[in-house]
């Protein structure tokens, strides 16, 4: 299989960029009963895909996975069996879950030189849980139609910790019968998996809107705290005080705390993910003629961070990109040079 869907711990290609939203009171994952246990082929074991595959196996499904990175396969053993190729993982599976990073990677998995399309049957459920955008998912589903009639669009939100608890939000779209066939897997991975549309692509559309909000909110948090820093304010106090008022948002709370700490090497959601996802947002907006000036500004900011070598740092590094921490005061009230 082409190396263009390699995943690795240092470059979490499938990691959702709106990571670590508050956990729900989800019940522990339980094993399915009898006939609900599925043979699952799994492709992509990055930061999100790995824990998602493991929790699916722990729920009683038989999961066989492929990833280009041997360490990713070792990380989910013994719960998840390793396959030597994507085709081997998919062969004979009731369902195939694909958790890669981009539309081109998805097309390579399905139709590349050693793609899986030819080993699928008319009854195989293909469930794409990555964020690849509406255009890519619709192209993949149309091209795959001669091989399998079942296709589910199911991008995720929630972050790594919740992925390992089976506590994700999954935005599901597809035909009723296809979604019903995938429901045992959704129940293993998600505490909330609403059907948001009957058409493949609607799940991606929901995720694009989600990423617009997340990407703009992170950028706004970075800009606000950088401004506070430049004015000589204690940014830890700014974060605490404003977080108790109308300016609070999840991203200001979550990413803002990382900005205050300045630990941008502790990567929970890489900046490069938003380079990709804000591109998908602006592509989707362009296709329907919708102005998206805030999304465009946020995309330019993330692209600038990538160009300045920050792409693999935590996305909270936008604070530093905007000059935060290089002037004024930090969270302990001391100047940066102190």
Automatic annotation (TrEMBL):
Q: Where is the 3-hydroxyisobutyrate dehydrogenase-like NAD-binding domain?
A: 201-322
Q: Which domain of life is it from?
A: Bacteria
Could you say which protein family the record assigns here?
Answer: Belongs to the HIBADH-related family.
Q: Which PANTHER family match?
A: 3-HYDROXYISOBUTYRATE DEHYDROGENASE-LIKE 1, MITOCHONDRIAL-RELATED
What Pfam family is a match, any one?
NAD_binding_11
What name has this protein been given in UniProt? 3-hydroxyisobutyrate dehydrogenase-like beta-hydroxyacid dehydrogenase
Locate the compositionally biased regions of type Polar residues: 1-18
Oxidoreductase listed as a keyword: yes
Q: Where is the 6-phosphogluconate dehydrogenase NADP-binding domain?
A: 39-196
Which GO molecular-function terms appear in the entry?
A: NAD binding; NADP binding; oxidoreductase activity
The reply on keyword Lipid metabolism is: no
Sequence segments annotated as region (Disordered): 1-30
Keyword terms: NAD, Oxidoreductase
Catalytic residues per the record?
207
């Amino acid at each position: 299989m082409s190396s263009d869907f390699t995943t690795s711990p240092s470059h979490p290609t499938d990691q959702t960029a709106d990571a670590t939203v508050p956990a729900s009171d989800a019940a522990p994952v339980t094993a399915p009963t009898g006939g609900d246990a599925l043979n699952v082929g799994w492709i992509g074991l990055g930061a999100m895909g790995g824990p998602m595959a493991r929790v699916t196996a722990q729920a009683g499904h038989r999961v066989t996975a492929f990833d280009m990175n041997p360490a990713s396969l070792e990380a989910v053993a013994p719960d998840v069996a390793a396959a030597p190729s994507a085709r081997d993982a998919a062969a004979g599976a009731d369902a195939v879950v694909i958790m890669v990073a981009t539309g081109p990677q998805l097309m390579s998995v399905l139709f590349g030189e050693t793609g899986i399309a030819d080993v699928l049957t008319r009854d195989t459920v293909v469930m794409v849980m990555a964020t690849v955008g509406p255009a890519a998912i619709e192209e993949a589903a149309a091209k795959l139609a001669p091989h399998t009639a079942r296709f589910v669009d199911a991008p995720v939100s929630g972050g790594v910790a919740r992925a390992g608890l089976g506590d994700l939000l999954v935005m599901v779209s597809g035909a009723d019968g296809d979604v019903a066939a995938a429901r045992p897997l959704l129940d293993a991975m998600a505490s909330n998996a609403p059907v948001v549309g009957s058409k493949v692509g609607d799940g991606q559309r929901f995720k694009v809107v989600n990423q617009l909000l997340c990407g703009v909110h992170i950028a706004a948090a970075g800009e606000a705290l950088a401004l506070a820093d430049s004015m000589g304010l204690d940014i830890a106090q700014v974060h605490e005080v404003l977080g108790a008022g109308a300016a609070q948002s999840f991203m200001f709370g979550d990413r803002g705390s990382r900005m205050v700490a300045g630990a941008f090497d502790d990567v929970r959601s890489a900046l490069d993910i938003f380079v990709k996802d804000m591109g998908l947002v602006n592509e989707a907006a362009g296709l329907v003629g919708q102005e998206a000036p805030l999304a465009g500004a946020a995309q330019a900011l993330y692209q600038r961070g990538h160009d300045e070598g920050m792409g693999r740092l935590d996305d909270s590094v936008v604070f530093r990109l905007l000059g935060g921490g290089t002037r004024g005061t930090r969270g302990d009230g001391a100047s940066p040079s102190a």
